[in-house]
What does this fold into?
Amino acid sequence: MKKIRLIAIFFAALMVVNGFNFVTYAWDYPLDIDVVYISFNYNTGSYSEDALSIIPGYGGSVIQREWDNGGSTNLKFAYIKSQTNRKIQVQFWHNQNQSQSYNFAIGAAASEGISFGDVPYATVSFPSNNNGYSEIRTYQLNGTVAGSVGKRYVKFAWWCVNEALSMGYTGNHYYYTLLDAPQAPMGIPWTSVLDYACVWASGQTSAENAATNITNSLYTSGFDYETGSGAPRYGGWSSFYLTQFISELGSAYEVNCLDMGKAVTTFGNAVGCDLNLTTFSGTFALNCIDPIGTPAPTNNPFSSPLIGDDCRYGGFGYHAFSQNASNVTWDACLKYDIDSNPDNVSNSNPGCGTTTTGYSWILPCNESESAYIQRLVDDWTSWENCSNRYNCGYFTYERAFAVN
It folds into this structure.
């Protein structure tokens, strides 16, 4: 840790600060006091006072001692928005006589970044014959976590007050701010997921808006729609190959609705959106859609791009998307047509995705289930007129899946 030594008389006139009676010692100069480690998530069984448990990725261990060994380890941690008075645990080391015990008043203040609280000065005991190491000191910080989703950092400047010694800096400490406790399949979030989700949903204060931002970011993430068989790339109903998915973000691999429904649910739940995977199954024709990636707008993604108004063949056998507990829907797989004639593919004004004034594609975000199905499903499915689109298929809610 970088050292900045100041003349000891800087604080010599101070006898009491924050209720601490200061004692000075005779030193073998130069005096060094270092931060050995900081643990933001020291209690892995609870986050009522400290940071949440997170892991780097599949098979990883819960992160503790996020800052260690003079900064050789510097790992991220996570809080829920607007939490107050978080606690951390810190250990220190000094370079003085090992046979003597010492008490120092040590604290820290944020010098850069966005802080969730300063470290108030507290007495730290250094037992004799302990190789210069201190007790493990629990500090209660005196601030509040930011009130929105984000990925932020803070840098701390540490001081030993009774010896007027600047101990240097620790950081940059990077941390995530979530909306709420994360949910399955991200009950213990991955940092590799939070690195995306907290940036995509940055600044959002509600689950609805965070899920919308995540859905938009996934729709524009570079994937193309699978127009051959419509098969998923990243696992079937019960699994999501999340490690592979993250490694291929930004690439033009082909995906289907199941891939993207699981992605919205996973990335949303990592920040606390409380979403579930839903499927609508049957054999139903489509209104005009604009699938993810390069396929052209269509009502028949698996054959010729357009098959005529009120199509009576083609379409989906099932469709997957993400919903909350109120069955409000987010879908990163496609945009759909909301003009007055959404199944018109042979004429213009309005045509497929257009109106007389311009384009009318929207990405389904924060849409009621009924409005979503009404816009997605064409009146005609197979051989019958599906005037009530709910009759065109059936829903399966809260489909559980594991990530790897």
User: Anything to note?
Assistant: Residues 1-18 have pLDDT under 50 and may be disordered.
